[in-house]
Automatic annotation (TrEMBL), chain A:
Gene3D superfamilies: 1.20.1250.10. GO terms for biological process: ciliary neurotrophic factor-mediated signaling pathway; negative regulation of neuron apoptotic process. This is Ciliary neurotrophic factor. GO terms for molecular function: ciliary neurotrophic factor receptor binding. InterPro entries: 4_helix_cytokine-like_core, Ciliary_neurotrophic_fac_CNTF. The lineage of its organism: Eukaryota, Metazoa, Chordata, Craniata, Vertebrata.
Length: 201, 990
């Protein structure tokens, strides 16, 4: 199974560069997300340790048994949900709390949204390379996609979404940094399988 | 109560009936009270109606005709009184019930409230009604963490109370508003309240009020929006299509409330469906013209109304013309457009056409019914233009409509304009024809080049040159065109060519005579903000124009000049050029410009900005004139002056310090004399200055030498005075010679000899030793304490000057040294005539005699010079014995004190070897010693000392030469005054 999946990786160099690029985007997103959180807390007078209960994104739990494709799929799926939540949060915020003069917060919010889209493109390419489905649609089932009704809870919900993006960005960095060694290892395994088959012939 | 005073009055007037009457009154009062209790109704059917948003509680009840009630509102849980008030409440005509409204400070959800009412009439009250309870949200059944009021909108400056209902089982922590912790009060077991006073503007997303439990882990909160009520303005309605209405207004104040909390508008009670926009300018369209409009702006904090009314014809704001086109010519163009609505075709319109060319905009206005075209005149050929149009109603003009879209076009070409030309002539009939490049507008098409023609009308010679586009000056040599004569002229013509043809020629007539005729005077031109302002006198009948030409004044050959043309009649002009540079002198010339040759009328010189000279004066020289110092210099070259030199400052510098000696305000100064300077070294600095200041200065040094001519003059004057003095003295002595003789040279009486002792006795065998001659030898080993000749320096002569000193420089001892015999008292030989007082006075007092002798000794020295051995050495001192011996003819004192002291010490260790030389020719005493004291040359001078020798007396006398004196005079024609005096005295001797 491993050999079959590894064969689908078209060249370790391309994968490594794609992974590296995705990791750089994730690092950038993580930095930009931290700025966004800071701006939002400043805007809403929230303290940094404000309570955030539970995760909004729903993905299978992490496991060491997961192979590269499953890890990429899990990451990509979580990031997709993040982007859906973020889109919705921005829309709700604009609809119910917006209208004022645009400032640094609004600019940074757009930056994070765009960067998250770039990261999704990169992880999507990696997932495709790893043999995953070409196109994933976010599973919004169970997501608190509409958010709360009162404005304060809406603000807390937006904050939770920003934290969720921040969390999954860090996860993306961790996952992507772990990928190159796996690819290299699996490339070696692919070479061995081919050698064995050649010897049998 | 009114009856009480009355009762007291009765009791005092009728005491017998008092008890009965009092009882009756008490019974009556009791009866009344009982009746009242029975009459005041207890409020029934108390009903509560709460408006949670407005925090208003409506209480209604039934209480018959009673109008005054006591109301009590308590917080149910803690039984704290919130309100206890007596109010007057009438029965509502509609419901037939008593109704009273109360607005709570706290949100009504905060905690349960108990309300009870009783009727009152005066002090009489009914029983309390049943207590009605308004349930709060802190009931045990509602366990959640809650906060009230929810998402409230309040005006700026309002006070708002918030309450927080803790989750069942959690302890209250704090309430924060923004970043501020607030002080809270407890309303019930789970409910806490706080009030925010004088609230400022919130953020656009609202300010947060957050309630924390004691762990600060559990929070809940609300957003509160603080803003302003609406304030619209500039409400006006107009029509653009002559049918519908467009109403416009703007928001004069940002309410800080947006989106769902933003301002809502109604126009004539119809909601305006406006899309949300931060743009304060609002516009709303209504399908028909109503003539009167009311705008109402509403938000959560209030509302504002505006009205407007007008006839349609007074509010026409046409839409922009459409589909613009143009018909273009070289000098004009026609712009055409279409009108959007048919109604405009019958409407009198005024339209504005804005023409833009090279960044400049001009507006042309046209009118007409249904106007749809306009002709634009006075356009430049071959020029790019852009045009846009807008229109308005000509009658009852309301405002300009919108601008149409812009169209562009380019006008056609024409032949170029005539170039602006000028001629610069050098002094040798060469020069250059110059012209200014045509501007794009002057070119009026695509330029191809220029043509320069020189034509001599008299000689019918013509020279034409085609010049490319990038050349604007052509050198000329008139001598190649025409013969140089004062009547001949050459016409220079320049034409420009473009694709359309050749321009009209521009020409200048050049006379074949010296063109650089300097005007009588050159004025100074002053540069101002507008450039060089020039003024000149003009003949009132003059019809010619002018040309003002300027160039760098330091340029003399083929100068790059600039010029402008001045219309006839003008007498002033300001010239400005981007090429003007500070520190450069410009020659500005005014020429007449007519069909005749240009004539120089006036000339100016000026600087755009004067600077300090870039170099100092040239060739600074210092010359000593006696004790004066003459400084001379040459002026700074024109290029380096960089300003009009106003004068010169003369400094004397010592080290780094400059001392101003003089300020020469005459710029033509070329020299300065520093007078009466003592000897020494001096350094002078000359700095020219302009209005901008001094230059760095030129420095020259001089060592002032002593003034030798004066010294010579002084010496000569001194000598002259001395000579004159001597002459006077001599003259006086001559005149008083008898007295002088008596005073200084009394006759020596003839010795009286008692008997012929000289013959009877043994012959006087005393011969002066040959060494009795004065032997003046300076010997350091000689003990000066002994008798000897003492050397005394003659200070007076030393002071006479160097001339004499130098003449004696080669001698071992100066001739001015005088020798005195200091041992006169020890002379062993006494005069042989002790009875002679005269002789004793003159001979015994040797000291005095010596003084007298000293005065004559000078002549002795001169006599010494008569040494026959050579006049060339006559000035040599006689200290040298060999010289003296060789001479033999010089004077030698006959008294030789050394004779006495010979045996005590060798005064003359080297006696003369030749005794004959010692006794040789010389002076003799005036007395007749020759007879009485015959000298034997051969022996007398070389033997025993001359004891009793008359030579000792002779030393007090003048020593006169004997018969050989004439010979001596011949040998020494330059005899001194002393010699002359001696001779004179000798001749007077009887």
């Amino acid at each position: 199974m491993a050999a079959r999946r590894t064969r689908r990786i078209t060249g370790p160099d391309v994968s490594r560069s794609t992974v590296a690029r995705a990791a750089r985007i994730a690092e950038l997103l993580q930095y930009e997300c931290s700025i966004l959180l800071e701006l939002y807390r400043e805007k809403e007078s929230f303290t940094a340790d404000i309570l955030v209960d539970g995760r909004l994104v729903s993905v299978p739990p992490p496991s060491s048994q997961l192979d590269t494709r499953d890890k990429l799929w899990r990451l990509h799926s979580a990031l997709l949900q993040c982007r859906s939540l973020l889109d919705r949060a921005i829309a709700r915020e604009e609809e119910e709390l917006g209208g004022g003069k645009k400032g640094d917060y609004e600019t940074q919010r757009k930056v994070v949204k765009d960067r998250l889209s770039y990261l999704l493109i990169s992880t999507g390419e990696l997932l495709k390379t790893a043999g995953g489905p070409a196109l994933l649609t976010p599973n919004l089932e169970g997501l608190e996609i509409d958010g709360p009704t009162t404005l304060f809870e809406l603000k807390l919900w937006v904050h939770r979404i920003f934290k969720e993006v921040d969390y999954w960005t860090k996860m993306a960095i961790t996952t992507l940094e772990a990928l190159p060694s796996v690819i290299a290892k699996e490339s070696m395994m692919t070479t061995r399988v081919r050698s064995t088959r050649s010897a049998r012939r | 109560m009114d009856t009480m005073p009355h009762l007291s009055v009765n009791r005092s007037s009728k005491p017998n009936c008092r008890t009965v009457w009092l009882i009756s009154v008490l019974v009556g009062l009791l009866a009344i009270h009982t009746y009242a209790n029975d009459v005041l109704p207890v409020p029934q059917q108390v009903s509560l109606s709460a408006n949670m948003d407005s925090q208003q509680l409506s209480i209604s009840w039934l209480a018959g005709a009673a109008t005054t009630f006591d109301l009590v509102i308590l917080r149910t849980e803690l039984d704290e009184t919130v309100l206890s008030e007596t109010v007057s409440v009438m029965v509502s005509q509609l419901s037939g019930r008593h109704e009273w409204n109360w607005t709570s400070v706290e949100p009504l959800e905060c905690t349960s409230l108990s309300i009870k009412i009783r009727s009152r009439e005066g002090q009489t009250t009914s029983e309390w009604s049943n207590t009605e309870i308004l349930q709060g949200s802190d009931l045990p059944s509602e366990e959640n963490f809650q906060i009230f009021p929810l998402d409230k909108v309040v005006p700026v400056g309002a006070n708002t109370t918030f309450c927080c209902i803790m989750k069942e089982g959690n302890q209250f922590g704090k309430i924060r508003y923004g970043n501020t912790d607030l002080i809270s009060t407890r309303l019930s077991r789970r409910s806490y309240a706080t009030t925010v006073f004088n609230q400022g503007l919130s953020s656009s997303s609202g300010s947060n009020v957050i309630c924390y439990d004691n762990t600060e882990q559990l929070i809940t909160g609300v957003a509160v929006f603080v803003g302003y009520p609406p304030l619209p303005g500039d409400f006006v309605c107009e029509t653009r299509d002559l049918t519908s209405t467009v109403c416009l207004w703007n928001e004069r104040r940002d309410t800080n409330l947006y989106k769902s909390r933003g301002t809502r508008y109604t126009l004539n009670n119809r909601p305006c469906a406006l899309e949300w926009s931060r743009n304060p300018q609002k516009e709303y369209r209504v399908a028909n013209w109503e003539g009167k409009w009311t705008l109402v702006a509403v938000n959560a904090l209030g509302q504002y109304s505006l009205t407007d009314s007008a006839k349609l014809s007074h509010r026409v704001n046409p839409v922009a013309p459409e589909h613009l086109t143009s018909v273009v010519h070289a000098l004009n163009a026609t712009v055409l457009w279409q009108l959007k609505y048919d109604g405009y075709y019958s409407l009198a319109l005024v339209c504005q056409v804005e023409l833009t060319s090279q960044g400049y905009k001009t507006k042309h206005t046209f009118t007409g019914v249904g106007l749809r075209s306009a002709v634009l005149p006075d356009l430049y050929p071959y020029e790019d233009y852009s045009v846009q149009v807008r229109c308005g109603a000509q009658q009852n003009f309301w405002k300009w409509g919108s601008w149409s879209e812009t169209i562009s076009f380019k006008t056609s070409s024409l032949v170029p304009e005539s170039p602006d030309m000028w001629v610069w002539m050098n002094k040798d009939y060469t020069g250059q024809v110059m012209w200014k490049p045509l501007t794009r507008r002057q070119s009026r098409g695509l330029m191809t080049g220029y043509e320069v023609t020189l034509w001599s009308p008299e000689e019918h010679l013509q020279h034409t040159e085609i010049v490319p586009l990038d050349i604007f000056a052509v050198p000329i040599n008139l001598t190649q065109i025409a013969t140089v004569s004062s009547d001949n002229m050459v016409m220079a013509t320049v034409t420009a060519k473009n694709t359309e043809g050749v321009s009209q020629p521009a020409s200048v007539l050049i006379p074949l005579r010296l063109t650089d005729v300097d005007p009588l005077a050159v004025s100074r031109a002053v540069y101002t903000d507008q450039g060089f302002s020039l003024f000149w006198q003009s003949d009132a009948n003059a019809t010619f124009a002018y040309v003002v030409e300027w160039c760098n004044a330091s340029c003399k050959w083929n100068c790059l000049v600039d010029w402008i043309n001045v219309a006839p009649g003008n007498t002033n002009v300001s010239i400005e050029s981007a090429n003007f540079q500070p520190g450069v002198r410009y020659n500005i010339s005014l020429y007449s410009s007519s069909s005749e040759a240009p004539e120089l009328l006036q000339r100016w010189q000026g600087y755009m900005q004067e600077l300090v000279p870039s170099s100092p004066v040239m060739s600074l020289l210092t010359t000593q004139q006696d004790s004066d110092i003459l400084l001379s210099w040459e002026q700074i070259p024109l290029v380096s002056r960089r300003g009009f030199v106003l004068g010169y400052n003369i400094y004397m510098s010592s080290g780094s310090q400059f001392t101003l000696l003089a300020n020469l305000s005459d710029p033509g100064s070329r020299s300065y004399k520093v007078k009466s300077m003592p000897e020494g070294s001096y350094k002078f600095t000359v700095k020219a200055y302009t209005s901008a200041g001094e230059d760095t200065g030129a420095t020259a040094s001089i060592m002032l030498e002593p003034f030798t001519d004066r010294l010579i003059l002084e010496i000569l004057a001194s000598l002259g005075v001395t000579a004159l003095f001597l002459v006077i003295v001599t003259f006086i002595c001559y005149k008083k010679r008898q007295w002088v003789k008596k005073a200084f040279y009394p006759d020596i009486p003839e010795p009286k000899l008692p008997g012929d002792w000289s013959r009877s006795q043994a012959p006087l065998d005393v011969k002066p030793p040959h060494h009795s001659l004065v032997h003046m030898v300076e010997r350091p080993e000689w003990d000066s304490s002994k008798e000897a000749l003492v050397v005394i320096p003659e200070e007076d002569e030393d002071e006479d000057g160097q001339g004499i000193g130098e003449a004696l420089a080669d001698t071992d001892e100066p001739t001015s040294l005088r020798y005195y015999n200091q041992v006169v008292d020890e002379r062993p030989i006494r005069p042989r005539y002790p009875d002679s007082s005269d002789s004793s006075a003159s001979s015994l007092d040797s000291a005095r005699t010596d003084v007298t002798y000293t005065g004559i000794q000078t002549s002795g020295s001169f006599v010494f010079q008569l040494d026959s051995h050579g006049s060339s050495e006559g000035h040599q001192p006689q200290a040298d014995p060999s010289f003296c011996a060789g001479g033999g003819g010089g004077y030698r004192p006959q008294m030789q004190s050394r004779v006495v002291s010979d045996d005590t010490g060798p005064a003359s260790p080297n006696p003369y070897p030749d005794p004959e030389a010692a006794s040789g020719g010389g002076y003799k005493p005036q007395s007749s010693w020759q007879m009485d004291s015959p000298v034997e040359d051969g022996e007398g001078g070389s033997r025993a000392p001359s004891l009793g020798s008359p030579t000792s007396i002779a030393s007090t006398q003048f020593l006169l030469p004997d018969g050989e004196e004439h010979t001596e005079e011949k040998r020494q024609p330059s005899s001194s005054a002393a010699t002359w005096l001696t001779n004179l005295l000798s001749s007077t001797k009887p």
